[in-house]
Amino acid sequence: MNQENPSTSQTDVAEKPAIILSDRVQEALAIAKRGADELLIEADFARKLQRSEQTGKPLRIKLGLDPTAPDLHLGHTVVLNKMRQLQDLGHTVIFLIGDFTSMIGDPSGRNVTRPPLTREQIEENAKTYFAQASLVLDAARTEIRYNSEWSDKLGARGMIQLSAKYTVARILEREDFTKRFKANTPISVHELLYPLMQGYDSVALEADLELGGTDQKFNLLVGRELQKDYGQEQQCILTMPLLEGLDGVEKMSKSKGNYIGITEPGNTMFAKVMSISDVMMWRYYELLSFKSLAEINGYKKQVAEGQNPRDIKVALAQEIVARFHTQQAAEEALADFNNRAKGGIPDDIPEVTLSGAPLGIGQLLKQANLVPSSSEAQRKIEQGGVRIDGTVISDKGLKVEAGTFVLQVGKRQFARVTLN
């Protein structure tokens, strides 16, 4: 049996008669599938959409996020964007904060046991989660839930009864568990419960559709199976790709430093978007932009006919900054970016006062918080990326005298330094 699809062999064999979809349902289906990795089961979801249109009852669409970190980045918004699109179609979206499952720790994609969070860490992180998600979702039309509502009530008896609905063999079909088992890497019992608890969330919420990243596919399918066991209509699942970061290779991650945070200053967000490659720009358009596919195809045609890709990237950067800040912030970010491109100095650079003149350039850069270490400062100097008042510094042994000057590293890092 396919380890990523535990429900295929048992629940999706019987074929159902085809239905004639209305134009509106076909449009909704196309919106749901835009940029998605996989929609299972598409025919079932089409039927749900058709029934919703006929009855006027919105579908219940679920997205669960464990508050494992306090801040969200654009990679997280890929699924949030999809939720917003479905919300704008009139369906009920449920933003589920996994305060209970966070204490287990999601083992998806990991080769070691993930340390569970404390209740204090979870509560602290959850404070900012929905506020940041509301920059994408319509908060007034979003149902906010915490899975401790029903998970805490299960108790020992309920947990045992839930565990009885799934076998160890089927849980171990999941790729990361299989690899760890074969490698004799420890797997804690509580990790085996995680897919069951996430699946039980779908039972508690009576979800029609659950969204998640491609790495969540197994867990989402467990939800389908549990709903069947509990006598409910099975949810469909929609998996979204994991967005590559600024390097265009690794998935976006704060730990890898290739991320764009949704609470970062507008100027920083704009400059980071402009730093992605012309090829990666189209993937960002597909997964992050709210522009129609027709508009995006129009952009592609313009580039093919000779339009500078930079102009198209500017439109993307402004759209993203405007979404998380304001349109005025987007205009100011463009002006700031153009100013920097011409060698200009931004207006909003930090001001730092230091002592110890004359001070070595490496220490100066480090103390001004422009580099993490003196060795990194030396590397930046070797690359010609360090300037004082616009003059490139090539002497790694330079001693900087007292005074006030603008220190620059690369294209985006500045500090106005007063050295005493």
UniProtKB/TrEMBL annotation:
Subcellular location(s): the record lists: Cytoplasm
One cellular component (GO) term of this entry: cytosol
Q: Name one GO molecular function term.
A: RNA binding
Where is the motif 'HIGH' region annotated in this sequence? 67-76
Q: Give the SUPFAM superfamilies listed for this entry.
A: Alpha-L RNA-binding motif, Nucleotidylyl transferase
Q: Which domain of life is it from?
A: Bacteria
Report the PROSITE patterns cross-referenced here: AA_TRNA_LIGASE_I, S4
Record keywords? Aminoacyl-tRNA synthetase, ATP-binding, Cytoplasm, Ligase, Nucleotide-binding, Protein biosynthesis, RNA-binding
Q: According to the UniProt entry, what is the EC number of this protein?
A: 6.1.1.1
Recorded catalytic reaction(s): these are: tRNA(Tyr) + L-tyrosine + ATP = L-tyrosyl-tRNA(Tyr) + AMP + diphosphate + H(+)
Q: Where is the RNA-binding S4 domain?
A: 359-420
Annotated GO biological processes are: tyrosyl-tRNA aminoacylation
The entry's ATP-binding residues are K254
Motif placement: 'KMSKS' region: 251-255
Q: How does it assemble?
A: Homodimer.
**Record-linked PANTHER family:** TYROSINE--TRNA LIGASE, TYROSYL-TRNA SYNTHETASE
**Family, similarity comment:** Belongs to the class-I aminoacyl-tRNA synthetase family. TyrS type 2 subfamily.
Q: What does this protein do?
A: Catalyzes the attachment of tyrosine to tRNA(Tyr) in a two-step reaction: tyrosine is first activated by ATP to form Tyr-AMP and then transferred to the acceptor end of tRNA(Tyr).
Query: What is the protein's given name?
Result: Tyrosine--tRNA ligase
The scientific name of the source species is Glaciimonas soli
